[in-house]
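thread from #wetlab-drylab

HS: before we spend reagent money on co-crystallization trials with MU-OXO-diiron, can we at least see a predicted complex? here's what I'd submit
DV: go for it
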Amino acid sequence: MQARQIRENIYWMGAVDWDRRLFDALIPLPDGTSYNAYLIPGSDKTVLVDSVDPTQADALLAQLHDLPQVDYVIAHHAEQDHSGSIPVVLERYPEARVIATPKGVEMLIDHLLIPAERFVAVEDGETLSLGDKTLTFIHTPWVHWPETMVTYLAQERILFTCDFFGSHLATSDLYVTDEARVYEAAKRYYAEIMMPFRRIIRRNLDKLQGYQVDLIAPSHGPIYDRPAFILDAYRDWTSETPKNVAVIPYVSTHGSTARMVEYLVGALTEKGVTVHQFDLAVTDIGKLAIALVDAATIVIGTPTIHVGPHPAVFYAAHLANLLRPKARFASIVGSYGWNSKAVEQIAALIPNLKVELLEPVLCKGHPRESDFVALDRLAAEVAEKHQSL
Ligand code: FEO
């Protein structure tokens, strides 16, 4: 793909990775992704904003082919999907230097073995004149690594944000055209990597309020020409108040746990609670992560396998513990054959979740009438707890 002009003499560069389906050997990418770099030629200096995943370095080098000089490469973030092609750019432009936060410099040296003399470390709020344009570097740590920053181009009111506000979405659209589609992709991205840092991300959002922004240009997914759309979404996702939502990840081996989950979903729905049910044997974990952004209650459903929960439940519980959603209540339902330590073992897996554990419902073998009564009691308790959110 050719470079594309986004404002007079400012260009999108990079690569659309239509067919990538996994990130970090962990995160599903149902819609592919893009690695956006941007070129800002000033009257005195020329800046490249971020680079691309090393697998796509040739695409970036082709876009830079006729450009005689790059003075600086801004590395907003040291992760290799943005920084990984910086070494080949530096090879092409031996005079170019890399701009990063002090922590970013350290990390880029560690991850890419770039010599220290090629860097310029910038402090929070520091500016750089390109002649007719001025860049301001704003430290926004923990989005989602400790070294992250964004850059503001005052003359055009563009905020270059790298992962912040990004979406894993391969599209030929330069700007957001389908807000519903981008909302889900951006929420998925937030849920998968940024949710554990929502308090500091809130502080970063506060910090950005002082800037007049016409365009938010992230390094994944399309550019926001209506910044309020994504800023409002981030405000909502990072708030500490969960919604009237219960998430039920579960596994069932012979149908008993599935029957309990089905009953509980019906009982919660009747009481006005929005429910998201996920069979962990087949679910896309990104969908589960999205649902966890808003959930007030998590109910884990598991059969007992060798005394403890099903291994898929270990994985999901560990993941939820890492993502630290804002849920306030949790419970466990499921079936066992002769003995179970599932409740104790699941509780031990989620120390990061600041949840009140509501009385679990475990049944021996197939659920009986008394078990459905217990599930009605659990549904009533969840609905009542949600009244006080
Ligand atoms: Fe898109 Fe954290 O890298």
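DV: The first helix runs from residue 57 to 63.
HS: ok that's useful, forwarding to the group
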